[in-house]
Prior knowledge:
Layout: H1 2-26, H2 28-52, H3 56-76, H4 80-99, H5 103-111, H6 116-119, H7 126-129, H8 131-146, E1 151-155, H9 162-165, E2 169-174, H10 177-183, E3 194-198, E4 201-207, H11 223-234, E5 238-242, E6 249-253, E7 256-258
Parallel strand pairs: 1-3
Antiparallel strand pairs: 1-5, 2-4, 3-4, 5-6, 6-7
Helix pairs in contact: 1-2, 3-4, 3-5, 8-10
Amino acid sequence: MSSYIINGMTNNLGDILINYVQELYxxxxxxxxxxxxxxxxxxxxxxxxxxxxxxxxxxxxKGMLIIMIVMAxxxxxxxxxxxxxxxxxxxxxxxxVVLFQPELRRSLEELGSNKLxxxxxxxxxxxxxxxxxxxxxxxxxxxxxxxxxxxLIVLERDIEIKDIIATGVSIDAEISPQMLVNIFVPNTxxxxxxxxxxxxxxKAAACMLPLAGDKDIxxxxxxxxxxxxxxxxxxxxxxxxVSEETGKVSIAKDRSFNC
Length: 259
């Protein structure tokens, strides 16, 4: 049934294009309107691309594009069941993304990220790939813990969080325990907010993170813990929290805490 729908849409689109070309040929004035029309479309899509290319929306769009490509291939290869499921998803996809945020949105972002192996669950964990960076961050975290200095460090993984980085102060420095400890010294300009590490570098400090709701976290935990859970829900990032009350180090990953 879905293949008929797609074939029907293709035929209708072909008829529309043929009629449009014939009209351009018989009415030269329409050619001017056509050029203006195409120019406006290109301008709009160029502006939209500039807006979304540095945000998680771009990865979401790439995920949707991959689904559309698979849907087209399933139609050509006569994979009827798969094509029907994907066609139904594309029909109600926007509704599902809104209804099941952030779970479905995150899955689409992972599908649109640079590494599809992460989406299928066969990629190696970040700890096995960046041991030296993790070691430096761990040194800083436990030094902050010993001093009972509150801290929040976010490690970007496959899903880019450039929109989060943009909310803070750009640093773009090499990772070092001394740098991380100094950033979180109380009453300094950058101590409040999160440090985001991306591509093996400290990208920004004093970044603002989305906060998790009351149902996602115990009430006795503070804003840093809510922010850590919030970013772990909206992306695949890892958040390291140091409590200024107890000095306890916690890790938020995949919507949950590991202490």
